[in-house]
Amino acid sequence: MDIYEQPKFCFLIANISTVVLASVFVKRVERVKREKAHSVLRAFGFSFQTAWQSSGLIQR
């Protein structure tokens, strides 16, 4: 491998790993947000949850 292509290769690997880590983190954050939203809806009561579902904001 040429000495000029090696940094590009390392940079590419770093980019890929960063993207993978970011996507995993985002999925985890979204899951936590969804769980919090569901617990908030349960705290507000079933009528509030039904209203949100009927408005289409939450798909089951």
UniProtKB/TrEMBL annotation:
<keyword id="KW-1133">Transmembrane helix</keyword>
<feature type="transmembrane region" description="Helical">
    <location>
        <begin position="6"/>
        <end position="26"/>
    </location>
</feature>
<keyword id="KW-0812">Transmembrane</keyword>
<protein>
    <submittedName>
        <fullName>(Mediterranean fruit fly) hypothetical protein</fullName>
    </submittedName>
</protein>
<keyword id="KW-0472">Membrane</keyword>
